[in-house]
């Protein structure tokens, strides 16, 4: 009889879109996995030995993934490489069809090339814009960046969501099959 797999769903976020995606993945995993959804903060102490599988999710801001996530990966890459794991990035550039995979999304490609951790499965999802929530500087910088990229610049819209939820659901199914299905984990146990 197989057991329920203990999975860490660890994320960093700016406007909570990465959390929203992670919660959707947890919902898709349902009762097949025992998932802990945790926001990674600078003072977080995460015990990876409690988990059989890990999924990290992070968003970018001004072209860079979270420094907190990068430090966590740098500090834990050996342990991350020793267990089944996944990574997804979130950015609005991924709204474009030719920029929505880890191989075609420049931000994610560069990030994954800089780290020693090699996730089992990877994805990139388009995020969302929350113009009214941004401070003056961020609202105008992000609007300018979106203007350059021919994106939405209407700062009066409460939320402009680009996330393709079908893609998120498909990734959740792949994550389960490739990373945390008991048959996969049983094959790599002692």
The CATH superfamily of the largest domain is identified as Flavodoxin domain
Helical stretch tally: 6
CATH-derived topology of the largest domain: Rossmann fold
Overall CATH class of the largest domain: Alpha Beta
- Rough outline: globular
Indicate the percent of residues in helices: 25-40%
Beta-strand fraction estimate: 15-25%
Sheet/helix structural class: alpha/beta
Sheet with the most strands, sense and barrel status: 6 strands, mixed
Query: Per CATH, which architecture of the largest domain?
Result: 3-Layer(aba) Sandwich
Low-confidence stretches: none
Termini, distance in Å?
17 Å
Order of helices and strands: EHEEEHEHEEHEHH
Rg calculated over all Cα atoms: 17 Å
Number of strands: 8
Oligomeric state of the chains present here: single chain
Counted up, domains total 2
- Nearest-integer average pLDDT: 91
Please sum up the structure shown.
Helices cover 39% and strands 22% of the residues. The strands form two sheets. Strands 1, 2, 3, 4, 5 and 6 form a six-stranded mixed sheet that branches. It has a two-stranded antiparallel sheet with strand order 7-8.
């Amino acid at each position: 009889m197989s057991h329920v797999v203990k999975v860490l769903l660890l994320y960093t976020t700016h406007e909570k879109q990465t959390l929203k995606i992670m919660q959707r993945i947890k919902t898709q995993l349902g009762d097949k996995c025992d998932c802990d959804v945790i926001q990674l903060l600078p003072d977080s102490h995460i015990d990876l030995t409690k988990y059989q599988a890990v999924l990290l999710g992070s968003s970018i801001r001004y072209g860079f993934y979270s420094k907190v996530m990068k430090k966590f990966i740098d500090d834990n890459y050996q342990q991350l490489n020793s267990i089944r794991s996944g990574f997804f990035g979130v950015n609005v550039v991924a709204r474009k069809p030719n920029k929505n995979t880890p191989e075609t999304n420049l931000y994610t490609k560069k990030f994954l090339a800089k780290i020693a951790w090699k996730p089992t499965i990877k994805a990139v999802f388009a995020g969302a814009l929350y113009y009214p929530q941004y401070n003056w500087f961020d609202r105008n910088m992000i609007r300018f960046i979106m203007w350059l990229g021919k994106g939405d610049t209407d700062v009066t819209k409460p939320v402009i969501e680009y996330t393709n939820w079908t893609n998120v659901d498909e990734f959740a199914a792949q994550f389960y099959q490739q990373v945390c299905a008991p048959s996969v984990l049983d094959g790599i146990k002692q």
